[in-house]
Amino acid sequence: MKRPREPDLELRGKLIRSLGAFREMLPGSFVERKRACGRPNCHCADGKRLHSQFQISVLIDGKPKALNIPVDLAEKVRQKIEMRQRFDAAAATICGVNLKRFLKEKEQRQA
Ligand SMILES: [Zn+2]
């Protein structure tokens, strides 16, 4: 006999299997700041064509820190920070499925 489909379990399994893809995730948020470097001859001196400074804004030992990111790593770091958000979303969905199953199991015991 074929077991009935359980969409929640299929979803949970799919998410669990996807978690490995997030192994390179980074904490915090990705910040892009615009700034002038202060050199009078630089293109940024017009106040419009400013330099981009990329940073990770993150709590380290409970204290907020802004870590500069070298420009050539910025895109990679941005993607790794996004991974954390997708990881958190996957974890929340998995917990939601498990909570639903727990409540159902509890209910069946009482019956
Ligand atoms: Zn400049």
Distance between the termini: 26 Å
Give the strand line-up of the largest sheet. 1-2-3
**Beta content:** 15-25%
Small ligands present: zinc ion
Mean pLDDT across every amino acid position: 94
Structural class: alpha+beta
Shape descriptor reads elongated
What is the number of helices? 2
Helix content: 40-55%
Order of helices and strands: HEEEH
Runs in which pLDDT lies below 50 for 5 or more consecutive residues are none
Present the secondary structure layout:
Layout: H1 7-18, E1 29-35, E2 51-60, E3 63-69, H2 74-110
This protein binds zinc ion.
Could you please describe the fold and organization of this structure?
The chain has 111 residues and is an alpha+beta fold. Helices cover 44% and strands 22% of the residues. A three-stranded antiparallel beta sheet has the order 1-2-3, with helices on one face. Helix 1 packs antiparallel against helix 2. Zinc ion binds at residues 36-37, 39, 42, 44, 51.
Output the keywords.
3 strands, 22% strand, three-stranded antiparallel β-sheet, binds zinc ion, 111 residues, alpha+beta, elongated, single chain
Question: How is this structure best summarized?
Answer:
By secondary structure, the protein is of the alpha+beta class.
